[in-house]
């Protein structure tokens, strides 16, 4: 059975903003995000620990500016039920809908409070592919609101000639 989870995550429009044009009026009016998965365990009760949702199997996030797929994702919620952070695991692929970049990683963390996306190596390096470069590193940190990317550990950049 497919589970669909709706959340208003206007703050996630940051994802992979490098080389991206400003949002179109259509995407800025529809700021909802849909998460689909084969199963969902949801804990929104304060007495049971940190509020979270664990999505398992064929996880797909559809957002106005990107899609993300993974085998599993945990979404952490604040006391007011706003999304604080998320952790995507296994075969994480993020594709910008404008086609400006694709990312792949075994694990991705997003901290909403500091607007930082971290792609992590488990057994292979994550990568970010754009029209003119491909970046590989043990850890890739994206600060999309600042159009900034940093890497940690073994890193390599392959530059491609523009067509």
Detail the topology: elements first, then pairings:
Elements: E1 3-8, H1 25-29, E2 32-37, E3 39-43, E4 52-62, E5 66-77, E6 83-96, E7 101-111, E8 116-120, E9 127-130, E10 133-143, E11 148-159
Antiparallel strand pairs: 1-2, 2-4, 3-4, 4-5, 5-6, 6-7, 7-8, 7-9, 8-10, 9-10, 10-11
Description:
The chain has 163 residues and is mainly beta. The chain has a domain of 112 residues: Sandwich (lipopolysaccharide transport protein A fold). 3% of the residues lie in helices and 60% in strands. It is built from one helix and eleven strands, in the order E-H-E-E-E-E-E-E-E-E-E-E. Strands 1, 2, 3, 4, 5, 6, 7, 8, 9, 10 and 11 form an eleven-stranded antiparallel β-sheet that branches. A hairpin with a 5-residue loop joins strand 5 and strand 6. The chain starts with a strand and ends with a strand. About 15% of the residues have low confidence.
Keywords summarizing the entry:
lipopolysaccharide transport protein A fold, 11 strands, 1 helix, single chain, 163 residues, elongated, mainly beta
């Amino acid at each position: 059975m497919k589970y669909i989870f709706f959340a208003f995550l206007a703050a996630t429009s940051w994802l992979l903003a490098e080389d991206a044009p400003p949002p179109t009026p259509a995407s800025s009016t529809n700021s909802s995000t849909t998460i689909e998965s084969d199963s969902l365990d949801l804990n929104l009760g304060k007495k049971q620990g940190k509020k979270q949702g664990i999505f398992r199997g064929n996880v797909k996030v559809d957002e106005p500016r990107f899609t993300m797929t993974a085998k599993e994702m945990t979404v952490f919620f604040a006391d007011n039920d706003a999304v604080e952070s998320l952790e995507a695991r296994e075969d994480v692929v993020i594709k910008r809908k404008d086609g400006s970049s694709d990312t792949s990683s075994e694990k991705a963390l997003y901290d909403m409070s500091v607007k930082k996306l971290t792609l992590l190596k488990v057994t292979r390096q994550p990568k970010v592919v754009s029209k003119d470069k491909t970046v590989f590193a043990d850890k890739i940190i994206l600060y999309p609101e600042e159009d900034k990317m940093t890497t940690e550990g073994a890193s390599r950049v392959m530059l491609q000639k523009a067509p």
